[in-house]
From TrEMBL:
<keyword id="KW-0028">Amino-acid biosynthesis</keyword>
<dbReference type="GO" id="GO:0008615">
    <property type="term" value="P:pyridoxine biosynthetic process"/>
</dbReference>
<feature type="binding site">
    <location>
        <position position="193"/>
    </location>
    <ligand>
        <name>pyridoxal 5'-phosphate</name>
    </ligand>
</feature>
<keyword id="KW-0663">Pyridoxal phosphate</keyword>
<protein>
    <recommendedName>
        <fullName>Phosphoserine aminotransferase</fullName>
        <ecNumber>2.6.1.52</ecNumber>
    </recommendedName>
</protein>
<feature type="binding site">
    <location>
        <position position="102"/>
    </location>
    <ligand>
        <name>pyridoxal 5'-phosphate</name>
    </ligand>
</feature>
<dbReference type="InterPro" id="IPR020578">
    <property type="entry name" value="Aminotrans_V_PyrdxlP_BS"/>
</dbReference>
<dbReference type="GO" id="GO:0030170">
    <property type="term" value="F:pyridoxal phosphate binding"/>
</dbReference>
<keyword id="KW-0963">Cytoplasm</keyword>
<feature type="binding site">
    <location>
        <begin position="76"/>
        <end position="77"/>
    </location>
    <ligand>
        <name>pyridoxal 5'-phosphate</name>
    </ligand>
</feature>
<comment type="pathway">
    <text>Cofactor biosynthesis; pyridoxine 5'-phosphate biosynthesis; pyridoxine 5'-phosphate from D-erythrose 4-phosphate: step 3/5.</text>
</comment>
<dbReference type="InterPro" id="IPR000192">
    <property type="entry name" value="Aminotrans_V_dom"/>
</dbReference>
<dbReference type="Pfam" id="PF00266">
    <property type="entry name" value="Aminotran_5"/>
</dbReference>
<dbReference type="GO" id="GO:0006564">
    <property type="term" value="P:L-serine biosynthetic process"/>
</dbReference>
<dbReference type="InterPro" id="IPR015424">
    <property type="entry name" value="PyrdxlP-dep_Trfase"/>
</dbReference>
<feature type="binding site">
    <location>
        <position position="170"/>
    </location>
    <ligand>
        <name>pyridoxal 5'-phosphate</name>
    </ligand>
</feature>
<dbReference type="InterPro" id="IPR022278">
    <property type="entry name" value="Pser_aminoTfrase"/>
</dbReference>
Amino acid sequence: MKRPYNFSAGPSMLPEPVLETIQAELMDYRGLGCSVMELNHRSDAFEEILHGLEARIRRLLKVPEDYAVLFCPGGGRMQFSMVPLNLLGAGVSASYVVTGTWSKGAANEAARFARVHVAYHGNGTKLPDEEMLDIPEDASYVYYCDNETVHGIEFPEPPAAMVGIPVACDMSSNFMSRPFDVSRYGLVWAGTQKNFGIAGLAVVIVRRDLLGLASPEVPTMLNYDTYVRTGNLPNTPPVTQIYVANLMAQWIEKEGGLDVMNTRAIERSSMVYDALDACPHMYATKVDPKARSRMNVTFRLRDEMLTDVFVKEAAEAGFINLAGHRTVGGIRASLYNAMPIEGAAGLSSFIRTFALRHA
Ligand SMILES: *Cc1c(COP(=O)(O)O)cnc(C)c1O
C-alpha cells in the first residue's frame, strides 16, 4: 500500500518503520502477551522504555549532566502554565519575545501569574534584530518560540541578546530536527506531535538549579520537582506517547542523528521554497527570507480563489493536509523529520506544474 505524503502541521506524519514496529508489537510486546498500552508502568519492560527514551535524548542532544529531562503530560500548552509557575521563583516579572501565535499564547497565559514584559512584538513575518530586544534585568526569565508553526518563521539560532538571564524556549515544532547547544538555555520544552511522536506529551529539559523555585501553592502535578523526585513516574504516565517517542529516538539514531535530520530538513524546505520563488506570479510568500522555517513552509495563492483548488488537486496527486492554519488561511506545508525527501520533491514539482496549468 502506498500512503500519500502527509503535510499536516500536527499531529503529523510518523516514519513508516515506526508505524510498522507499533503494528508488529501491538498484540504482543516482546513476548509479554500484551501491548505496551496494557502493561504496568512500573514493570521492567516499561521502565526500560522510559529510561531508554531519556538516555537517547541525552545522547542525541549531548544534554549536560546538570540538566534534568522530564516527561510531562498535557501536551504543549500545559507548558504555557508550567513554565511561569516554576521559573518565576521569587520574581514577579518575565519577558516574552512574541513572534507569532504560540509565543503570544504563552505570554497571555503567563500574564495570569506574572507581570509580563513584551520584549518584542512581531507580526509573524520576521524575527527581531538583536538591538530590538530590550530585556529588563529584573525578569526571572526570557521566553521565546524557536519555530512559529502557524506562520512558518524559525530562529536560525537564539539571539545573543538574551543571555544573562535564564532563557526558556518552546521548541515544539523543531525539536529533534537539528542539534542545539542545551547549555545556552535554562529550559527547553517541546510537545512531541511534530517531529518526535504523538500528541499529549511534552519533553522538558531544565537546568537543575532552576528546580525548586515553585511556590508551595503550585499544584503537585504542575511542579517540575514532582517529575524529578519520582523519576518521571509521579502517576501513570502517558505510556503510549513515551513508547512512540522512544521509537522515534531510535529511528533518528539509526538514520544518523540530528545532523542528518538537519541536512534533510534544509534540503526538503529549500526544494519547496525554490519552487515558490520560481513562480512569483502565482504564489506569495510573506516571511522574511532570513526567517524562513525549515519545518513549516507557508504561502498564499495570489488569486485567493485558487487556494481550495490547490488543496484539492494536491490531495488528488497524493499530497494531503496542505490547508493553512484556520486563523491565517493560505497554504502550509509541514516538513517534519518523517517527511521523505521524495515527498518534498513531489510537492515542489506539483507547485510548479500547478502554476503552469492555472497561469
Ligand atoms: C503545536 C504547538 C504547540 C501546542 O501544542 P499542543 O500539544 O496542541 O498544546 C505549542 N507551541 C508550538 C510551537 C507548537 O507547534
